[in-house]
From TrEMBL:
This is Ran GTPase-activating protein 1. Residues 369-398 have a biased composition (Acidic residues). Residues 363-413 are annotated as: Disordered. Residues 390-549 form the Ran-GTPase activating protein 1 C-terminal domain. The gene is RANGAP1. The keyword Repeat applies. Pfam families: LRR_6, RanGAP1_C. GO terms for molecular function: GTPase activator activity; small GTPase binding. GO terms for biological process: nucleocytoplasmic transport; signal transduction. GO terms for cellular component: cytosol; nucleus; perinuclear region of cytoplasm. It comes from Oncorhynchus kisutch (Coho salmon). Belongs to the RNA1 family. PANTHER family: RAN GTPASE-ACTIVATING PROTEIN 1.
Length: 549
């Protein structure tokens, strides 16, 4: 069942169209002529929405409701809630991305009424998916009651990707899960949450540590995904301890957090206790050589059914990588080993390939094309001392989320690594010179590369996060890449637009370009850009023509 009140993407696109007066008229006439697209109108919305509430009401034995990809205000949520009040068999809330464009203040009351209805109905939930609703800490308050109630005693999957929970939201969530566990246990049916997903939420050490305590208590987790949360070694260590108490753990994804040696060793220690783990994603986690060696040891000793190991982009040197490669010997279930983006050097890469070939696993080794090369010999001596210092800094001020470097000269922030794997944290870490760094990195004479950089940077845009928002806009529009590109008389603006449309999947190209996954940030940034003085009017019309389809 997929409800369509109106297409959120079109609303955003309309924002782009409305960007200038000249185009506003065009958009207007377009809206009038297109009958099907015309359901954007409030009239259409009203008609459909009444249908929807009625259909929910009349659906006997309703178990699942998909609200994702639409947008609902408080009143709409209340009307849906009313219709849910009698659905005692209800189990699956697929409610991701359902508040696009709403004020943040609307979300808690909307969630509250939906939650209250489920409690009234006596529903027993299996899945609660609220991903991609940028509701922030207050949004967590909106589901707090529901999470503590009997409706959630049966919960198996909790999905809260990309919700902007922050430390505060993480703590509220942890307390609610703890309460739910205690209540349900006292009734003889303890909460057995299996899947927990909360990537990109800025949980940081304190949020992660609070959640870790709840995880430890529950002990039922099979999949934990908390990538990109600015977690450093104290938070990683807390999670490691918690994971030891979850013997059914199959998937552990901590991609793009910052382990450093301490966190990685704690995690390796935890892995020794776990027998069911199949997927380990510690890519982009700065596990470092010592961490990799500890993890290799854990793999050699245990993890009998390991399928995937990602230790990419972790500043791991050749010898440590070699130990990792040797550790997968005899793992008949192995499907993928990713050691890309480390510091193996050419010889190190060859040695790792040789070991994997020798194990008849050559084809399971991922590409090593982004290897950073061996670190310089002279700097090895200082490595340990410096790491300890760096770790202390992290402890004192975890919010700054420092990344330490094994080299004695601090490595300058790197625009190219951001462009490979964009994350809001990395963008912020580039510092105030980020616009300049991108200008140096991106060949703005090349329209295709400029479009690609545009999409990479704008993908991390976050309306709710002022710092990230202005970092994105500064890097792209205000005085950086695009201004520079369009200022160049020989810049092929139409090529830029068409590259953009191809990458967004709105225009077919002969060279099979794989479209990116379109995220709101792309369109929100575009909306900003088309309003800038350097953006040619006639280009907007072209954009308009394609996007209106
Ligand atoms: C491993 O992590 C890196 C860095 O985040 C990512 O780019 C890569 O796709 C991951 N590899 C696999 C096999 O998932």
């Amino acid at each position: 069942m997929r409800w369509c009140i109106y297409n959120a993407k079109h609303i955003l696109l309309l924002g782009v169209l409305m960007a200038t007066d000249a185009v506003a008229q065009l958009a207007d006439s377009l809206a009038k002529t297109q009958v099907t697209e015309g359901e954007l109108s409030y009239k259409g919305q009203g008609r459909k929405f009444d249908n929807m509430v009625k259909e929910i009401q009349e659906f006997k034995g309703l178990q699942a409701l998909r609200l994702e990809g639409n947008t609902y205000g408080v009143e709409a949520a209340q009307a849906i809630a009313k219709a849910l009040e009698t659905k005692s068999e209800f189990k699956y809330c697929y409610w991701s991305d359902m508040f696009t464009g709403r004020l943040r203040s609307e979300i808690p009351p909307a969630l509250n009424s939906l939650g209250a209805a489920l409690m009234t109905a006596g529903a027993r939930l299996t899945v609660l998916d609220l991903s991609d609703n940028a509701f922030g800490p207050d949004g967590v308050k909106g589901i707090e009651k529901l999470l503590k109630s009997t409706a959630c005693h049966t919960l198996q999957e909790l999905r809260l990707n990309n919700c902007g929970m922050g430390i505060g939201g993480g703590k509220i969530l942890a307390a609610a899960l703890t309460e739910c566990y205690k209540q349900s246990s006292s009734q003889g049916t303890p909460l057995g949450l299996k899947v927990f997903i909360a990537g990109r939420n800025r949980l940081e050490n304190d949020g992660a540590t609070a959640l870790a305590q709840a995880f430890q208590l529950m002990g039922s987790l099979e999949e934990v995904h908390v990538p990109q949360n600015g977690i450093n070694h104290p938070g990683v260590t807390a999670l490691a301890t918690a994971m030891q108490h979850n013997p059914q753990l199959r998937v552990l994804n901590l991609n793009d957090n910052t382990f450093t040696k301490k966190g990685a060793i704690a995690m390796a220690q935890a892995l020794k206790h776990l027998r069911s783990v199949q997927v380990i994603n510690f890519g982009d986690c700065l596990v470092r050589s010592e961490g990799a060696i500890a993890i290799a040891e854990a793999i050699t000793e245990g993890l009998p059914i390991l399928k995937e190991l990602n230790l990419s982009f972790g500043e791991i040197t050749g010898e440590a990588a070699l130990l990792v490669a040797q550790s997968v010997e005899g793992k008949a279930t192995l499907e993928k080993l990713d050691l890309n983006g480390n510091c193996l050097g050419e010889e190190g890469c060859d040695a790792v390939r040789e070991v994997m070939d020798g194990l008849n696993m050559g084809d399971l080794l991922g590409s090593l094309s982004d290897d950073e090369g061996e670190p310089e010999e002279d700097d090895d001596e200082d490595e340990d001392d410096e790491e300890e210092e760096d770790d202390d800094v992290e402890e004192e001020d975890s919010s700054v989320n420092q990344v330490s470097s094994p080299l004695s000269v601090p490595r300058p922030p790197d625009a190219s690594s951001f462009l490979c794997f964009p994350s809001p944290d990395k963008l912020l870490k580039l510092g105030t010179k980020r616009a300049l760094l991108f200008e140096q990195q991106v060949d703005v004479a090349d329209a295709g590369k400029t479009a690609e950089a545009f999409l990479k940077i704008s993908s991390v845009y976050n309306e709710e996060d002022k710092d990230v928002k202005s970092a994105v806009l500064d890097s792209i529009g205000k005085d950086a890449i695009l201004r520079k590109a369009f200022a160049n008389p020989s810049f092929q603006g139409y090529n830029f637009i068409s590259s953009l449309l191809v990458m967004l999947g709105l225009l077919k190209s002969e060279d099979k370009v794989k479209p990116v996954r379109v995220v709101p940030g792309h369109l929100q940034t575009l909306e900003y850009v088309v309003r800038q003085d350097y953006f040619p009017q006639d280009h907007i019309a072209v954009l308009e023509a394609f996007m209106s389809r």
